[in-house]
Specification:
It contains twelve helices and ten strands. With 345 residues, it is an alpha+beta fold. The strands form two sheets. The chain has a seven-stranded mixed β-sheet with strand order 1-5-6-10-9-8-7. The protein has a three-stranded antiparallel β-sheet with strand order 2-4-3. The structure holds adenosine-5'-[phenylalaninyl-phosphate].
């Protein structure tokens, strides 16, 4: 018993002297590990009577508990001191300037899509999604443009295989929507990207975007189309903008029109932006061709409809006075920031 007390006393003295965490761990190993001084005393139990073993065992356990709790107290104290020391040594220079975070801005291209959607939703249209990669069947065939039709030349595009291509116009959506509607009335718009072999200049790009519109019901006529497009133009551009309808040709509409808006740059006088015509074409439209209605399961004697395809960048150029279509794709943050100022009507 005396030996136990002696070992405990020595261990406490050594613990007292320990000045670092590693010193304390060393004391712990010396006395409490499996082969530590207190643990090996247990071997002596073999030589004792049952009665003596009880008191001896209890004494060793008490000594172990005492030493363990003193070691933990000391470790706790040393850890706190270490943390305090680290905090005191750590200096933060609050005079350094902070890093300002630039918030993103919406490209005018997407702002115009939002505006176009808002105008048409206000007229009762729903917004559909289309696919940029589509089948020849939808992009051309169901739109009355069979293989070898000359209209295909104007809309040459990138082919993934003989039957799959990057759509050259959003009109492909028309055939999908008609297929889905299964003979029921339709009133939709669908914005999206299109791809075409075209010479890039101030108003043309090989990749651009359109908003397709399609209305099919009983008694839909050319007057409805004209009123819709006039209302759209009046809401989108200033009341001073002029609009003109030119007769045109699309294989999927009859009659067909192209709609021009007076040039934002020269206000109709003629300049390099409008190629001296005073007008910029923004959309193609017309009454849905009876063949297209038939191919998609609508009886042209009962149903009629109109469709239009608006060039989104062209509308944005007119709306914001942007002189070159290529600016939309150049990712110049200075250009993008310009359009988050309020635009005058
Ligand atoms: C078409 O693409 C027809 N699918 C539009 C249509 C839809 C007609 C429904 C009838 C019924 P067009 O090729 O004219 O038509 O293009 C329509 C509009 O897209 C143009 O008025 C113009 O604003 C825009 N656009 C056409 N080509 C380009 C181009 N290379 N770069 C930028 N915008 C273009």
């Amino acid at each position: 018993m005396e030996e136990i007390q002696k070992i405990l006393e020595n261990s406490l003295i050594e613990l007292e002297k320990a000045s670092s965490i590693s010193d304390v761990v060393a004391v712990k190993n010396l006395y409490l590990s499996k082969k530590g001084k207190l643990s090996v005393l247990m071997n002596k139990m073999r030589d004792l009577s049952i009665e003596e073993r009880k008191t001896f065992g209890k004494e060793i356990n008490d000594a172990k508990i005492t030493l363990e709790s003193r070691i933990n107290e000391k470790l706790d104290k040393l850890n706190k001191e270490k943390l305090l020391e680290e905090l005191n040594n750590e200096t933060i220079d609050i005079t350094l300037p902070g890093n300002s975070l630039n918030s993103g801005e919406k490209n005018p291209f997407y702002k115009i899509i939002d505006e176009i959607e808002e105008i048409f939703i206000g007229m009762g249209y729903t917004v559909e999604k289309g696919s940029e990669v589509d089948k020849d069947h939808y992009v051309f065939e169901l739109l009355n443009i069979p293989k070898d039709h000359p209209a295909r030349d104007m809309q040459d595009t990138l082919y993934i295989d003989n039957e799959t291509l990057l759509r050259s116009h959003t009109s492909a959506v028309q055939a999908h929507v008609m297929e889905k509607a299964n003979g029921k009335p339709i009133k939709i718009i669908c914005p999206g990207k299109t791809y075409r072999r075209d010479d890039d200049d101030m108003t043309h790009s090989h990749q651009f975007a359109q908003v397709e519109g399609l209305v099919i019901d009983k008694n839909i006529n050319m007057g409805n189309l004209k009123a819709t497009l006039e209302l759209f133009a009046r809401k989108m551009f200033s009341k001073n903008s002029e609009i003109r309808f030119r007769s045109s040709y699309f294989p999927f509409t009859e009659p067909s029109v192209e709609v021009d808006v007076s040039c934002f740059n020269c206000h109709g006088k003629g300049c390099n932006v409008c190629k001296n015509s005073g007008w910029i074409e923004i959309l193609g439209a017309g009454m849905v061709h009876p063949n297209v209605l038939k191919m998609s399961g609508y009886n042209p004697d009962i149903y009629s409809g109109f469709a239009f395809g608006i060039g989104i960048e062209r509308v944005a150029m007119l709306r914001y006075g942007i002189d070159d279509i290529r600016r939309f794709y150049q990712n110049d943050i200075r250009f993008i920031k310009e359009f988050n100022k309020k635009v005058e009507d």
